[in-house]
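Sat 14:20. Reprocessing the chain from the morning session after the first attempt stalled halfway. Input below, unchanged.
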Amino acid sequence: MKKQILLLIPLMMLTGCKKDTSKLKIVCPTGAPSIAFYKENSNPNFETNGVPSNIVSMMNENSDKDLVVIDTVSGLKAIKNGAPYKLAVSLTFGNFYIASTGKDDDEVMDKDDKIVLFGQNQTPDLLFHYLYGNEYNDAIEYVTNVQDAAKCLITGKNEVTTNTIDYVFIAQPVLTNALNKNKNAKKVVDIQEAYKSKSEGKSLIQASLFVRNKAKKDIVNKYLKGLKVSVEEAVNNPDVISETLKDKSIEEMTALYGVAPSLAVTALKDNNGLGLGYKKGKDIKSEIDSFISLFSLENTNEEIYY
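Finished this time. Tokens:
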């Protein structure tokens, strides 16, 4: 009898150690960051949102979102304003570009051109102004999200203002699709390189994952381990995304991720054009501090890291 009980103990311990991560509620912007979650394609608790400000508004005391992905600057500002979250992992490290629509006769971006930016007061906007100051302020027209920016690059017009657009601040992977649709469009500025040059070699820190303080740590830790594996697999072999999503409809996946998976795979194969990666926030604190200092934010406190 004692022997039977002793044999049951390891089984009970194993059963007790099983941690179900499927109930974690996750929200992420469409576009590059969402591609990190390609294995969540059928998870009803995973959602994307095309409007970054909507995601920031979810970082509140009453939120049920356990994991929130948002641009790092906006996430840190939210924490400073009382959001009960901690920075766990940075997932994207730059996929921004300025592209010309082909409408500018002299092909030189100047104050007389119309320039479209997305993400007003967020990372795209802050990056542009870090690089160019206020020189182009009168030329800027803001759109809600990167998908709207892509429409401007494809058509050369802003549907809202009806103005002809000369240049568009945009991100991969939607850039690849826009360039395919507008053969006169082309990349003119690699923002990552421009940033690196101006900041004397520092890395651009884009989207990060923030964990709700009330989330169960053991379950979150298990999920993050799996996410790390998924991201590294996708960077090393982008075709794993195609294989994972092969039985899904293109329309459904495009709606979920904000871009056709095939375009994301193409961008990843182009020297990791998505800037996808997985780095624990606390391990790159100095890089994060250098990045956010450019936007008048103080160095982060150790307490804000997961």
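The first helix runs from residue 2 to 17.
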